[in-house]
Amino acid sequence: MPKRIFLTRYLVEQQRLEGHIPPELRLLLEVVARACKRISQAVNKGALGDVMGSAESENVQGEMQKKLDIIANEVLIEANEWGGHLAAMASEEMEGIYVVPNRYPQGEYLLMFDPLDGSSNIDVNVSIGTIFSVLVKPEGAGVSEQDFLQPGTKQVAAGYCVYGPQTTLVLTVGDGVAVFTLDREQGSFILTEEDLRVPEDTKEFAINMSNERHWATPVTRYIDECLQGKDGVRGKDFNMRWVGSMVADVHRILTRGGVFLYPWDKREPDKAGKLRLMYEANPMSWLIEQAGGMATNGKQRIMEITPTKLHERVSVFMGSKNEVERVTRYHSEP
Ligand code: AHG
Ligand code: MN
Ligand code: MN
C-alpha cells in the first residue's frame, strides 16, 4: 500500500527535520485545518443544514453577509482562541481585531482570514474556500491593530482550503507549496502533492470581463492582445475562465497555470481594487511565488506593500510568471 502522509506528519517533519516551523505554529496550522474540516461539512450539507442564503447583515466592507460567511468566521474563532498559540485574529467579517480573551493564554502569532471566499457562489453550489495568513506579533506588551500592519514578506505561513468537488488544503510555510486532500471517511488531510509549480507560460486568463469599460489602459491593452489570439501580437489563442471565487481561480492557476487579474477600476476610483491585501492577496501571493509564479499590483510586488489599515484593498495580477511580468511592464510603459 502506498505510504500516506497525514497533515500532522507533514507538519511534524517541517518542525523536526526541516526546522521550518516551531511547535506552536504547527499547532496553529492543525487547528486551522480542523476548522476548515468543520466549514467543509457545513458547506456540504447545504440546504439540509440551514446554512444557505443571506444573514441580512452587512460587514465592514459594506457587503451583505451570507449565513455561511458568519458560520465560517465563528468556527475559525472558536477553534483558534483557546490553544495558547495566538495573540489575536482579524477577519474580513470583523471590523476590528479579535484579541484572544484573558481566560486563555496568549501566544505570539497573529492569524488573518477570509473565512469564506466567493460568497456569491455559496447558494449556487460552486467552489468556495477559506484563505488564511499568519504573522508573528511584534515584541511588546498587548496587541493592537498596528501589529497586523506588516508586509506580506513577513508571513510565516499562508494557505487556503477550497470546498469544491474535493476539499483541498494548500499550504506554505516558506518551503514550497504542499497540497492535501480531505479523506472524508477518515476525516484527515492527506498529502497529495508536494512542491507544486506554476508553469511560467500560459494561454489562460481570469478576469471579470464585464468591467472592461472601467479598466485602466494597461489592463485593456493586455486583455485586448490576449483576445486577438493567433492574429495579434501574442501569436497564440487564449482561453478565459472566471469562477468568481478567487480561491478557486487561484487554485486552478496553481494547478495548471494561468493569470488572475482583479485590477483597480473606475467604478470606485478611490479604492485600490476590490480584493483585500492582508487576508486575500498576501497569502495567495506567497503561495504563487512559492510555486514559481509572480504577484504584483501592476507596479510592485504585492508582498512588499506595507499596509496602512486592516481592510486595505489592492489591485491584483498573479499567476504564471511571464504573463504577470508582461502586464506589470505595461503599467510602466507610456
Ligand atoms: P468574498 O466572497 O470573500 O467577498 O470575495 C469575493 C471576491 C473574490 O473571491 C472573487 O475573485 C471576486 O470577489 C469576484 O468579484 P466579482 O463578483 O466582481 O467578479
Ligand atoms: Mn474573498
Ligand atoms: Mn469572504
Number of helices: 8
Q: Which CATH architecture of the largest domain would you pick?
A: 2-Layer Sandwich
Percent of residues in helices comes to 25-40%
How much is the radius of gyration in Å?
Answer: 19 Å
- What molecules are bound to this protein? 2,5-anhydro-1,6-di-O-phosphono-D-glucitol, manganese (II) ion
Tell me the CATH topology of the largest domain.
Answer: Fructose-1,6-Bisphosphatase, Chain A, domain 1
Structural class: alpha+beta
Write a brief caption for the model:
The protein is of the alpha+beta class and 334 residues long. Helix content is 30%, strand content 24%. It folds into 2 domains: 187 residues, Fructose-1,6-Bisphosphatase, Chain A, domain 1; 129 residues, D-Maltodextrin-Binding Protein, domain 2.
Name its key features:
334 residues, alpha+beta, Fructose-1,6-Bisphosphatase, Chain A, domain 1, D-Maltodextrin-Binding Protein, domain 2, 2 domains, eight-stranded mixed β-sheet, five-stranded mixed β-sheet, 8 helices, binds 2,5-anhydro-1,6-di-O-phosphono-D-glucitol, binds manganese (II) ion
